[in-house]
Amino acid sequence: MGVGTILRVLAIVGFSAISIGAKAQEYPARPIRILVGFAAGGGVDTVARLYAAKLQEVLNVPIVVENKPGASELLAALPLTRAAPDDYTLWMTSASSLVRGPGVRTDLPYDPLKQLTFISRVAEVEALYVVKPSLPVHSVRELIDYAKQHPGKLNYGSAGIGSSNHLLTEQFRLLTKIDMVHVPFKSDAEVARELTGGTLDFAMAITTFSTPFVKDGRIRAVAVTGPQRLAELPDVPTLEESDVPEVRGLGTYLFYGLVGPAGMSPVIVKKLNDALTKIAQTPEMAQKLRTVSMRPAFGSPPDFRRLIESEIPRWKEVGKTVKNTNS
What is the domain extent for residue 266? Predict the structure, then answer.
């Protein structure tokens, strides 16, 4: 290779580096869209709007949350995965669509590891193992023993086939070898309501909706997911504290995260991650999330991707025995 060729290559590389740096400095130059696969008012929508409000202050451009409810988030996922990686269309979603759905379903028209760029986790939420008050159980061990003494007699509720509490309850059922009947509803709020009415025996109910009912005695909590007890319910033990080895190590109930289409510029991803991390670490965001029984989360894009890579195989195992469609 001649000296002239080498100089031309160096010039191209230098120009590319300058262009990338300039792009990062200029970004964002117009409003950013965050797609949400649920109607306004749900958990993902709440997280998206809390972060969007602060993100537009940090980035100094409007952040538009666009709700596309229906079809198990596909109405948000498909436009995102098929979009050009222009860095201005993003998707706020959760473990349900990033690991659990892709793990258990064979009919999903997208592959998160191939078609998404992972920007940052932003929040986490736990769930309570709750029973109707008339059920004579007060711990996870007693629940399992009662279910084994009455096989197929207990029912459990979920927010729908393929929802997080459906799949996690199936995982719980398989790990503990108990038989319960699944009763799907349309939302977590409905599940909590049906428990208070006594039509459901058990549910893994997101804390956002179930904590108030536990506090006023309309349902009973026997455990909470996650690493520590809830400040609002200090007497409810974690799964880690139970005497049931099978349920230890199941981790956090649900995480929320921001993703984009595959091929996003790494410098833009870092800029967005830095902004989200800064927001997540503020007392203001912690307080706002606490009001909906959530907590902030953050981490690097590679860490986020590694989490997805490690979780999908686990859910593929669950998927071998779980019915996750209406057919």
Answer: 31-124+254-319
